[in-house]
Specification:
The protein has 2 domains: 110 residues, Gcn5-related N-acetyltransferase (GNAT) (Aminopeptidase, 3-Layer(aba) Sandwich), CATH 3.40.630.30; 94 residues, no CATH class. The chain is 26% helix and 34% strand. The chain has 5 helices and 10 strands.
Length: 204
């Protein structure tokens, strides 16, 4: 719930907002389960959002507080980044960002918002459970564990995403592929993710 009396404004990122974006991105991720990734230079979007993505910036009483980087893909909107500065966590900033994104998604005709959290890399960190619970409070449901596969032809299961010859599917779908004798290879180097989904109602 948003802290009573604290004004949170959420708007599309502007060119002049890039310094604020970098502050939120760096500080938000430094104090998260992704800290080591940030320090090792693995977080490539710290300087600016990817050119094919869009970003919402949250300002709390005029100060940079959080951000969401997202991509529209068919009838889905993917959250690429979600960061909130520690002092603004549990004060309604993340909720304001997600609710604004839901409005944007509806206007685009999307039916769901999708977010992913790495699976198998932070299992001993208590903050992983806290992060998954935070998504639950924001209206997301854990749909399953997703991974990337390569196979001959398009497999007879729903693909969550596609990058070249590689398809993103739920781990549970591998059983179906095996039953149908579909040859596939799991792209282990791309890892597995908890996939969380929030349904939205299109305005179109």
């Amino acid at each position: 719930m948003r802290e009573r009396g604290m004004k949170v404004e959420v708007r599309e990122l502007r060119k002049e907002d890039l310094p604020a974006y970098r502050v939120v991105y760096t500080v938000g991720y430094y104090y998260s389960i992704y800290r080591e990734w940030l320090l090792k230079g693995l977080m490539e979007s710290w300087c600016a959002p990817p050119k094919d993505a869009r970003c919402l910036l949250a300002l709390a009483e005029g100060s940079p507080a959080g951000l969401i980087v997202y991509r529209a893909r068919g009838d889905k909107v993917d959250i690429e980044e979600l960061a909130v500065i520690p002092e603004y966590r549990r004060r309604g900033v993340a909720r304001a960002l997600v609710e604004k994104l839901a409005e944007v998604a509806k206007g685009m005709g999307a039916r769901e918002i999708q977010a992913t959290v790495p699976c198998g890399q932070f299992e001993e960190d208590p903050r992983l459970g806290e992060l998954l619970e935070a998504y639950r409070r924001l209206g997301f449901t854990l749909e399953g564990i997703s991974l990337w596969v390569e196979c001959r032809g398009r497999p007879p299961v729903e693909a969550l995403d596609e990058r070249g010859s590689r398809l993103l599917v739920y781990e549970s779908s591998l059983r179906e592929l095996s039953k149908l004798s579909v040859e596939y290879r799991v792209v282990e180097e791309w890892g597995r993710n908890y996939t969380l989904v929030r349904r939205v109602s299109s305005t179109r």
